[in-house]
Amino acid sequence: MKRTFSSLLLLAAITFAGCPYAAAQSDPVVEKIIETGRTDNRTMEYLDVLSNRIGGRLIGSNAYDNAVEWCASMFGKWGLEVWVQEAGEVPVGFNRGPWSGRMLGGDGMNLHFATPSYTVGTKGVERGHVLKEPLTQAEFDRIKEKLNGAWVLIGGKNDGYPIDWTETGDSIRTAAIEKNIQIEKENREIAAYNRSLQNMSEKEKAKKKLTEKETIPYVYEPAMFYREMVEAGILGIIQSSPVPITALYDRKNLDKMTFDHLPPVPDIKLDESQFKEIKRAVSERRDVFLEFDIRNHFKPGPVKYHSVVASIKGSKFPEESVILSGHLDAYDVATGGVDCSSGCSAVMEAARMIALSGAKPKRTMYFILFAAEEFGLLGAEAWVKAHPEKLDGISNMFNRDGGPLAYTSFSVPASLVDEFEKISEPLREAYPDYGFTINAMTPRARPTSTGGTDASVFSIRGVPTVGMRETDAKGYDFQYREIWHTERDTFTESIPEYQEQAAAAMAIIGLGTANLDEKFPRNEVYTD
User: pLDDT, tens digit, for every residue of 240-259?
Assistant: First the structure.
């Protein structure tokens, strides 16, 4: 049967009325976001700039300041209102240059190592022999003259942080040394007692219920004679490290540093297999010589750091808001390609998609790249303290800080399940490989202390921080712990198709949340 134009319109109207997702499917704003996400997705471009052109973005570094300036300029380029918010300051700045090391003589070998941020480098190329650290005063006295110009192997395992070089660290080590002097005295008494039992028969010992005593283990602190070794002229200390190598920063002492009061010698974290080989050679009293060139540089402070904030003002409820966020800072032992360029780049592309779509969200949308997450959630804390009046109006905060994975589901308050089924349908259609399901969440107790991400700063204040679930949906064998705060946190570890889907998901779900008739009901998010 031939259908007229008017009959086609009638059929379309009937189909539209019967389809629960038709409104979302026909929304030109959503269609534009999907089109941009599928044909002009720039998430990996931003990730490339952050990771490779700018690099590791430690607060207090030139790289971090460059990232703030670039990100702010991009948000402004897309027509968003943008500003940078001062989040704090560090007493000195730190910039990392290249580093290299090798074992000299024989077959030699290139050394695989790193140093924590805010620790000193070498004074150019420095070569020296290798010693094992002294553990007792007698051992220190025996090798004191030999320590001058030596690299010293210390015990313990690298946890990412440097050895405490301050008076506080000295006092802990001194207490351990004094404790060991007492233990040594007690062990001599134990040894004498055990020798006395050797002259007794088993029958006599049994009758008197006498048994040998175990010696008391000595107390150990890595670099037990740190201050004394520094004064003796060591070049630096070397500690064994699991691979991939983790390198964090001088957390204990950064606030006390000045440009004239810095760590005295390099603190090197060396590949455990190479450490073992070198230690064995030194234990065999073979001559071992190492050469290091480590360019860790400081600048006078204080150095301020900032969060980047961009927004699209709400058309109906401007005092209410939805937040999309990641953290801009990253450890500089690598380039922050995952933690957290994978979050910042997705947030940036979601902002661009929404801006290009011509969307006029009902609620204000904030796109925030927080500073100093790695140093204790400091940027998020600064934002919350600066804007306490905005907390009650936040419908939900979407924080991306879990790796370069795809979004595959969203658990929402039970009263909003049907609404989010409609909102998410275009996402399912555009990215069918990921499914993307909507589930009803179970209310949970509001946290009472912050956790490991910026979202926790908001959740302890009762702000909903309901996140979408991230998964390695196609099985690329991504393992977050492998890159977390290590030398492997690079651009190549981020997964392009996941990143692109995540940016589109943040745009669609974030905008949909901003356009709800009501905010997230907090009594369906938290039980208190």
Answer: 999 999 999 999 999 999 99
